[in-house]
Amino acid sequence: MIIDAHGHVHDPVDAHLALLDEAGADRAVLFPTRVHPERARDLAALGREMAALGAALGGRAGGAGAHRAAWRELDAAVAAHPGRFLPFVSVPLDVPAGDVAVLVEREVVGRGAYGIGELTPPPGRADVLGPVLAAAADHGGLPVVVHGAAPTTADDLRTLAALARRHPSVPLVVSQLGGLHWMEAVGLVRDVPSMYLELSTAPVVFAVRLAIEELPERALSGSDAPYGDPVLARAAVERVTAPGEVRDRVLGGTLAALLGIG
Fold this sequence. Notes:
Blueprint: E1 3-8, H1 13-23, E2 27-31, H2 43-57, H3 63-80, E3 85-89, H4 97-109, E4 115-119, H5 130-138, E5 144-146, H6 154-166, E6 172-174, H7 182-191, E7 195-198, H8 205-214, E8 219-220, H9 230-240, H10 245-259
Parallel strand pairs: 1-2, 2-3, 3-4, 4-5, 5-6, 6-7, 7-8
Helix pairs in contact: 1-9, 4-5, 6-7, 7-8
């Protein structure tokens, strides 16, 4: 089974499905998003979308209210294509810690989502994920996916590793190969058994090769579509691996086992 481990709701959804079909992907993890760069038709429009992305990545999320429209878009996409998408649901991090467990129960578990994400803590504040991991552990170890590229810092990656050690039942996925800190990300994930590394938007192709060599059972192929391309994501993995068990794991086998799908 080929699974794209990282995708965001597209507008229209059919555009995303076409990309997945071209890549030969059977299914895709789908995250809600408040940003739609695929809608932009000129530089000014793209600038507005990217400004919204910058606000989200900077931790200016606006609480649960700002997430509701994104949750509705996710619900609609999954309802229209239930056999294709594996929904994850993000939760706001700028709410009181006591509210996090309620949100995970209602918005993640209540939707039947496969996990929590993609979470975007403010730079330097990965510690705010503590209540999320605690809530994930309370629900049998829900997987949690965290934004790994800029503005995530190397200190944030170390904080994530420390949190993962405190909550070993929770699979913690660092996305985008840890961004420019990919070497540190590979080492941290290698040393913490409950962590996984998603390989989208790699800065150099040998980062993908090294990550798979170091993490053959915990590297996940993803595109981060619409920012990346499912065809290119699969091609990168196939370029640096030989046909066989390791390639099959990275392209979907590991994630299928993690999520309990066949």
